[in-house]
């Protein structure tokens, strides 16, 4: 399947920058509203401490010390990792069909990583020490603490992604400069500082290598590595341990990311009449990827459930039994099953395919993966190996303060796209034009 | 020096070199220093020259030259100091053996981690030594494992003596100004299968593990093992409150300070809070950081008087002679003595069964299979996986304690106030 969108003109590409509608204002209001709701609740946490969450100590304390904040952190990091893996794959494997959504995926990565960072910030008891304690400890702690590995790799990864984006934007901004608003001139001047057309070839190679680094780093070290290792290396919690967590986390990341890209691409397509720029075939392709990743996700869940209940050690067996008797778990699994069935059904019968239905399915998948991740964290902590405590399993239902943070971060991502789409082209020039050959 | 001379010294062999290279530090520097250290030991290179030769490179590599520990400062060297060579030999001996431990293996104990520290110090790898010291590893052999050197605070808790009076919990709460429900000392009353409705008791402190997961996972080194005596402590000035120590601990001994502490800072004496290294590790934690049993670090540092060194609040409050605190490396200490006497009192019939052990006393450590090497041992029956906590003869509420801290926290949250709303 290949889609040719090279007939689309440059004006179409900069349409989001050139237009301004009531719907835009409405979307902006919703995003700011969501952020406002969160900030209102978060101010309570700043005043009173983490006591305003429904977290508590495990053990005699009768609660769980990690909850929705950590679940949402994993979820956002997953979306971020999956997003950039897809973008890098487009570049490395020459999957030109998805070129129109590659930059959207990169931008989603930046926004989602920011949200993940926010969740760490609001999760810790002393956010003011994140710099003063972490930086001095880095040289000695990085060889021991999985959390330090995590901070290190995610930071490196953020830098890679931002570099990747900054390099590819220079080409576009330079060529579309006459169509971009003058009031932002200082920004464009900064973005394209020192630009000459002779750099294109070099940048192209640099970007290739960055994409290569990302494609190696993200599955092995990030969502298939440091994030699951935060849990799977510990001796304390039965449901967390084991080698399957890496692949399992990665499958969830990819499933979530494809869903996120589908939603954002569909939103831009709808808002700016981009039927030509992001054709239906792109979504049909993404749907197949969604179906495939959902299948892997479900397969890895099956692995965990079967090994956890057949003849597992007592505590693991108990944790697994609780997991499969939790209705919310089956809601999460059901939403992903639905996505898989829809993707495969529409692959066989393309006339059944509908972008709006796919967006609905994708929203469902994101709800499902967030639910699964929160359950993984919370139920993992509820079933410690040491179960003599009356307070084990602990009780946990997220408080309004915690739930508002999820809404707030969704608002931040929406706001991010609303603002960025007014400043730079969110679809690469390469999607509609062949790369210009320049004599070096 | 000629090549022949070189061959006189044990060179850092290939295996050792690989181990060196696995560290993040300059392997070449380590190897060269190891070789020259032997020359110093053989009196062919002066200490001063040794110091000068590597001083700049060590500073470049580690930002600090800690060799003063083993090698005197050149400005202070006494030319007639005949013991200097001995000290160097001591410091640099067994390099190969020590290095092998740097590689470690899955079953690596803290002792071997500590040897890493020793090996690193011997090679002047002060940076690596520091890393060992801030992880669970003690950096020196002093607090180490079962090697009998230095102090290693620990407990023997005789469950056969405990009657579940909760006096230890009350004493701990009072001495450390704990917020309600933060039960650093916690006494389980439980029934086990096959024992009818007989109630058993198990007092649970922090296990002050030799190979503690909480110190390993701490991203900032706030949770650490104190070199001098193996206490597992939290530096309240550094802790970021991520609660990773709490989720990694198999025993559930950590209590986060979710809101304002019940006892304000103004009512807590510095003597109880600051240890002998000047670090804030004692008494209840401030808001937003993690707390847990400290084995009464203030007492061990002599802040409450010389006669309270080697005691804990819970031990002092125990009228049943169940809790025995002391230096596990000292055969004469209370925990070791109590165990020995208890075993002596329950001799086994070795005349008929000569291969049986000499006593019938059963001891255990909590979840020893987790590999944490706890420094609390229990006399009595280990609760089975089917044991269930039950109400004891004295209810927590009866002595002013709170069992389920979540109830306190939920009320505190609802009232938007401190933990005690």
Automatic annotation (TrEMBL), chain A:
InterPro entries assigned to the protein according to its UniProt record, in alphabetical order: NrfD-like
- What keyword terms does UniProt attach to this protein? Cell membrane, Membrane, Transmembrane, Transmembrane helix
Query: Origin organism of this chain?
Result: Halorubrum trapanicum
State the coiled-coil residue ranges: none
According to its UniProt record, which protein family does this protein belong to?
Belongs to the NrfD family.
Q: Which compartments does it reside in? A: Cell membrane
Q: How does it sit in the membrane?
A: Multi-pass membrane protein
Identify the GO cellular component terms for this protein: plasma membrane
Is Transmembrane tagged as a keyword?
yes
This chain belongs to the protein called Molybdopterin-containing oxidoreductase family membrane subunit
Query: Where does the chain cross the membrane?
Result: 24-46, 66-92, 104-124, 144-167, 207-229, 249-268, 289-312, 327-345, 357-381, 401-420
Q: Which Pfam families match?
A: NrfD
Whether Membrane counts among this entry's keywords is: yes
Automatic annotation (TrEMBL), chain B:
Q: Which UniProt keywords apply?
A: 4Fe-4S, Iron, Iron-sulfur, Metal-binding
Query: Per its record, what are the GO molecular function terms?
Result: 4 iron, 4 sulfur cluster binding; metal ion binding; oxidoreductase activity
Q: Which CDD domains match?
A: PsrB (cd10551)
A single Pfam family it belongs to is Ferredoxin_N
Question: Can you give the residue ranges of the 4Fe-4S ferredoxin-type domain?
Answer: 153-183, 197-228, 230-259
- UniProt cross-references to SUPFAM superfamilies, sorted A to Z: 4Fe-4S ferredoxins
Report the superkingdom from the record: Archaea
Provide the protein name.
Molybdopterin-containing oxidoreductase family iron-sulfur binding subunit
Organism source for this protein? Halorubrum trapanicum
Print the organism lineage.
Answer: Archaea, Methanobacteriati, Methanobacteriota, Stenosarchaea group, Halobacteria
């Amino acid at each position: 399947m290949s889609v040719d969108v090279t007939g689309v003109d440059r004006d179409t590409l900069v349409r989001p920058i050139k237009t301004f509608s009531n719907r835009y204002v409405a979307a902006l209001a919703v995003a700011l509203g969501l952020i406002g709701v969160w900030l209102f609740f978060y101010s309570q946490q700043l005043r009173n401490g983490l006591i305003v969450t429904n977290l508590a100590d495990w053990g005699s304390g009768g609660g769980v010390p990690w909850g929705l904040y950590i679940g949402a952190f994993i979820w956002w990091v997953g979306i971020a990792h999956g997003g950039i893996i897809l973008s890098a794959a487009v570049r490395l494997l020459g999957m030109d069909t998805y070129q129109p959504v590659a930059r959207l995926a990169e931008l989603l990565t930046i926004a989602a990583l920011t949200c993940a960072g926010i969740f760490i910030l609001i999760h810790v008891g002393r956010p003011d020490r994140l710099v003063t304690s972490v930086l001095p400890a880095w040289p000695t702690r990085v060889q021991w603490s999985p959390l330090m590995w995590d901070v290190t790799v995610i930071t490196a990864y953020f830098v890679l992604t931002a570099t990747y984006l900054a390099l590819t934007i220079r080409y576009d901004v330079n060529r579309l400069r006459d169509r971009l608003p003058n009031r932002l001139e200082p920004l464009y001047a900064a973005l394209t500082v020192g630009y000459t057309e002779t750099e294109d070839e070099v940048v192209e190679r640099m970007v290739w290598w960055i994409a290569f680094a990302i494609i190696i780093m993200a599955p092995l070290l990030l969502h298939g590595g440091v994030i699951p290792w935060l849990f799977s290396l510990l001796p304390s919690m039965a449901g967390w341990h084991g080698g399957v967590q890496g692949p399992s986390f990665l499958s969830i990341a990819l499933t979530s990311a494809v869903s996120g890209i589908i939603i954002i691409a569909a939103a831009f397509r709808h808002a700016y009449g981009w039927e030509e720029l992001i054709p239906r075939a792109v979504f049909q392709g993404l749907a197949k990827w969604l179906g495939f990743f959902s299948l892997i996700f479900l397969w890895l869940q099956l692995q965990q459930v079967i090994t956890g209940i057949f003849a597992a050690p007592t505590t693991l067996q108990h944790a697994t039994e609780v997991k499969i008797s939790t209705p919310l778990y089956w809601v999460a699994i059901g939403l992903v099953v639905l996505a898989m069935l829809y993707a495969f059904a529409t692959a066989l019968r393309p006339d059944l395919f509908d972008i709006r239905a796919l967006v609905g399915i994708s929203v469902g998948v994101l709800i499902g993966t967030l639910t699964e991740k929160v359950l993984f964290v919370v139920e993992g902590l509820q079933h410690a190996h040491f179960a003599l405590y009356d307070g084990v399993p602990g009780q946990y239902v997220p408080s309004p303060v915690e739930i508002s943070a999820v809404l707030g971060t969704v608002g931040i991502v929406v706001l991010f796209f609303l603002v960025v789409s007014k400043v730079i082209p969110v679809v690469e020039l390469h999607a509609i034009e062949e790369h210009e050959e320049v004599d070096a | 020096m000629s090549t022949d001379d070189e061959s006189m010294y044990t060179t850092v062999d290939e295996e050792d070199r690989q181990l060196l290279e696995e560290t993040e530090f300059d392997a070449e520097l380590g190897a060269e220093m190891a070789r020259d250290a032997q020359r110093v030991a053989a009196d062919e290179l002066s200490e001063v020259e040794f110091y000068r030769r590597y001083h700049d490179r060590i500073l470049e590599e580690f930002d600090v030259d800690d060799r003063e520990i083993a090698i005197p400062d050149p400005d202070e060297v006494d030319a007639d100091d005949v013991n200097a060579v001995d000290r160097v030999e001591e410091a640099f001996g067994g390099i190969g053996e020590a290095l092998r431990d740097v590689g470690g293996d899955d079953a690596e104990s803290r002792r071997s981690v500590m040897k890493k520290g020793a090996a690193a110090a011997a090679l002047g790898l002060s940076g690596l030594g520091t890393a060992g010291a801030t992880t669970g590893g003690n950096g020196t052999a002093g607090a180490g494992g079962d090697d009998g050197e230095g102090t290693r605070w620990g407990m023997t808790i005789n469950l056969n003596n405990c009657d579940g009076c909760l006096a230890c919990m009350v004493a701990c709460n009072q001495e450390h100004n704990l917020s309600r429900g933060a039960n650093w000392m916690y006494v389980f009353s439980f029934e086990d299968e096959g024992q009818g409705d007989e109630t058993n008791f198990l007092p649970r402190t922090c296990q002050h593990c030799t190979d503690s997961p909480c110190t390993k996972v701490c991203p900032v080194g706030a949770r650490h093992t104190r070199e001098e005596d193996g206490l597992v402590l939290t530096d309240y000035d550094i802790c970021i409150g991520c609660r990773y120590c709490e989720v990694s601990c198999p025993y559930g001994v950590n209590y986060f300070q979710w809101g304002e502490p019940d006892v304000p800072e103004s009512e807590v004496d510095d003597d109880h809070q600051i240890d002998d290294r000047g670090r804030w590790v004692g008494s209840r934690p401030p808001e937003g950081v993690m707390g847990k049993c400290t084995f009464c670090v203030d007492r061990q540092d002599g802040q409450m008087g010389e006669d309270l060194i080697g005691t804990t609040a819970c031990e002092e409050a125990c009228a049943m002679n169940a809790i025995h605190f002391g230096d596990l490396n000292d055969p004469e200490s209370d925990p070791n003595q109590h165990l020995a006497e208890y075993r002596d009192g329950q001799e086994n019939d070795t005349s008929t069964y000569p291969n049986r052990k000499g006593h019938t006393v059963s001891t255990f450590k909590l979840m020893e299979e987790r590999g944490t090497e706890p420094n609390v041992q229990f006399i009595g029956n280990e609760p089975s996986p089917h044991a269930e906590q039950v109400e004891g003869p004295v209810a927590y509420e009866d002595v002013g304690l709170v069992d389920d801290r979540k109830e306190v926290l939920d009320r505190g949250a609802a009232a938007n106030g401190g933990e005690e709303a």
